[in-house]
Design goal:
Order of helices and strands: HHHHEEH
Strand order of the largest sheet: 1-2
Helix content: 25-40%
Distance between the termini: 16 Å
Shape: elongated
Largest sheet: 2 strands, antiparallel
Mean pLDDT: 83
Number of strands: 2
């Protein structure tokens, strides 16, 4: 089952920008999920999520929900690189929120209270597609 998971750091091996960054888990997650390079994901997160260099990404869930209403595009970062891809566009769907946020992604194995899915339970239930959880 762990074949679904990627090492979040492999995506940044060819990026000089990544070597100078910290608190960039959202950048790495989006680069892996959308199969774009680190620089493209970094530029996207910087613009769409107003992320500052070296700082974490604030409001990720709410901004991502808003982005799910339209086509999102990862563009080349502007630097000349052999590893850049052309524009890549995606439709994303928001499938729900965890119970703490008032959502419906509830792990039904727990009956005593509303509990979010574990990574394993989520991966078993949603085995097709790409998810950021």
């Amino acid at each position: 089952m762990l074949k679904n998971f990627k090492n979040g750091y492999e995506v940044s091996e060819k990026s000089e920008k990544a070597k100078k960054e910290k608190n960039d888990c959202v950048v790495r997650a989006l680069a892996n999920a959308f199969e774009v390079n680190y620089n493209q994901a970094h530029t996207f997160v910087e613009k769409k999520f107003n992320r500052k260099k070296g700082k974490g990404t604030k409001g990720f869930n709410s901004i991502l929900k808003k982005l799910s209403e339209k086509l999102i595009t990862f563009k080349p970062s502007g630097q000349l690189s052999l590893f850049e891809q052309d524009n890549k566009s995606f439709n994303i769907d928001h499938i729900g929120d965890q119970p703490k946020l008032g959502g419906n992604l509830i792990n039904r194995k727990y009956r005593h209270k509303k509990v979010a899915y574990t990574v394993k339970a989520f991966a078993q239930k949603y085995s097709k597609g790409t998810y950021i959880y």
